[in-house]
Design a protein that fits this description.
The protein is mostly helical. Among the domains are: 188 residues, no CATH class; 113 residues, no CATH class. It has 19 helices and no strands. Helix 7 packs parallel to helix 12, helix 12 runs antiparallel to helix 14 and helix 14 runs antiparallel to helix 16. The protein is globular. The two termini are 35 Å apart.
């Protein structure tokens, strides 16, 4: 008996030492990267850590879904590309821990090695053509490398390294998806309704990209309302041309019929319009008063946004997908106008930003509201259709719309016991977890979501996301939905 206890004690001690050594190595690498970035005069978003662990989140989500479920050829293709991006992220971390010179070089061996990793997966497992695999792998890795360097060097104090990796991975994968869907028809071609929705979203987002590029290229003398109206007219013509080519000459009529001819969709649309009107009115009033919003006040917008996404996911997922794509384009356009120096639009948007910005919005762009929207909407893109997938579509709503908001409110009001080395409270974390479980129970009670083992899965997932929310220095709106998606997949395997 004593021998067994000694053996158990020995293994426990070995486990503790391994954990301590691993965390010591990670902290040492993180501190060395911070020093090298400072030596290279590169300013990341103020944070105690660089968030290096964030580089695995998006590839892990894609790979788990591609492995566990029947997904389209395009989804698997993107999952393998993301593994190459993750491999490059690891090499980038290693090289940056040695020297910041990696941020100055356009091409280095790490890009080629990562490209070969993705190529082997595409060619060896998915059976894509060798030239095709190599072409897309190299294009994605080299684009990712360039965008990562640009995000860290051109836009100071905007991203931590981990946040920059997630954002640039997302941009590259979205671009690859658009190219493969448009040119090679690799997506699901059987669902006509989804093809119609994706065509509209592509037209809107590409139009916004044209407007943003035009605003960026303007001289100071051209930054006027009249020039902006001209840009809008050209962009609107482009939108109609794309919709005519992809949807048909009756594209506007079809889009109107899609929303108006269904009474349920009309009710949803009116609910969303009311929420947007309330948010705009509150922002306008608070901006006129010029009263700085508190953290709890800002969280009210989490609630409004969560109501929109919760109602859409529960009652009409496809309409929610269409609205999310259009809304994302509008959000990007508003941020571009804020930075465009076109008066009086820019000054009005900047005044609202000054009132509602928080301590993390110190960089070139207003990333926190963008992260909130992306966090709520990303499950609509990342989660493939499978039995019970509606629960996973709520990952953003539960983690940041419900849990993070509840933790912020309850922790600021009633929290006294703080986590070690942090400013968040134990009481806030507990309320975070309980609120997510309570919302799930309410949805089940009212018959809005009937999925087996949902309460157990939400309880485990809420505990994981709640602990990450309490301990992480990265922006919650960006990382928590991805952490929640991974946790949901782990719980699905257990159940």
């Amino acid at each position: 008996m004593d021998r067994t206890r000694k053996k158990a004690t020995f293994y426990q001690e070995m486990h503790k030492q391994l954990d301590a050594k691993l965390f010591r190595i990670v902290r040492t690498v993180d501190r060395q990267i911070t020093r090298n970035l400072k030596d290279g005069h590169i300013e990341t978003r103020p944070s105690n850590t660089n968030g290096l662990w964030c580089c695995v989140l998006l590839p892990t989500v894609l790979f788990l879904y591609a492995t566990l479920y029947e997904v389209s050829e395009l989804y698997t293709f993107l999952a393998y590309i993301s593994i190459g991006l993750m491999a490059h992220s690891f090499l980038f971390i290693v090289f940056t821990s040695v020297s910041c010179l990696v941020l100055k070089d356009n091409i280095y061996g790490g890009c080629v090695a990562s490209s070969l990793t993705a190529t082997l997966l595409l060619y060896g497992i998915q059976r894509q053509g060798l030239i095709f695999s190599l072409m897309f792998s190299m294009a994605s890795i080299f684009s990712f490398s360039a965008l990562l360097r640009i995000s860290l060097t051109w836009y100071p104090k905007t991203f931590t390294m981990g946040e920059a990796m997630i954002v640039t991975q997302s941009i590259v994968l979205f671009a690859i998806m658009a190219v493969c869907e448009t040119l090679y028809k690799m997506g699901d071609q059987q669902d006509e309704e989804l093809r119609f929705i994706y065509s509209v979203i592509f037209a809107i987002l590409s139009t916004v990209a044209i407007i943003v590029a035009a605003l960026y290229a303007l001289d100071d003398s051209q930054r006027t309302i009249s020039v902006f109206c001209y840009i809008l007219s050209v962009a609107g013509t482009y939108t109609l041309m794309i919709l005519h080519a992809q949807v048909g000459v009756d594209c506007i009529v079809r889009l109107a019929e899609y929303v108006i001819l269904d009474s349920g969709r009309v009710k949803l649309f009116l609910l969303w319009l009311s929420s947007a009107a309330i948010a705009a009115f509150v922002i306008l009033v608070r901006t006129q008063l010029n009263v700085k919003a508190s953290t709890v006040t800002r969280k009210t917008f989490h609630v409004l946004a969560s109501i929109v996404f919760l109602s859409g996911i529960l009652f009409d997922i496809k309409l929610m997908t269409l609205a999310a794509g259009v809304g994302f384009g509008l959000l990007i356009l508003i941020e571009a106008l804020r930075k465009s120096r076109i008066e009086p639009i820019s000054s009005a948007l900047q005044a609202a930003f000054n009132v509602y910005s928080d301590e993390k919005d110190v960089g070139s762009f207003a990333m926190t509201p963008l992260y909130l929207y992306i966090g709520l909407a990303c499950p609509l893109v990342l989660v493939p259709v499978h039995p019970g997938y509606e629960l996973e579509l709520l990952s953003g709503v539960l983690s940041i719309g419900v849990g993070d908001t509840a933790a912020s409110w309850f922790g600021s009001k009633y929290g006294f016991n703080k986590w070690a080395d942090g400013h968040k409270t134990l009481e806030g974390t507990v309320f975070n977890i309980l609120t997510q479980v309570g919302v799930m129970h309410a949805l089940h009670l009212f018959g809005l979501l009937d999925i087996s083992n949902a309460s157990l899965r939400v309880a485990v997932t809420a505990a994981i996301s709640g602990l990450v929310e309490a301990k992480t220095e990265q922006v919650d709106n960006l990382v928590l939905p991805l952490v929640t998606l991974i946790a949901f997949q782990l719980t699905s395997m257990l159940c």
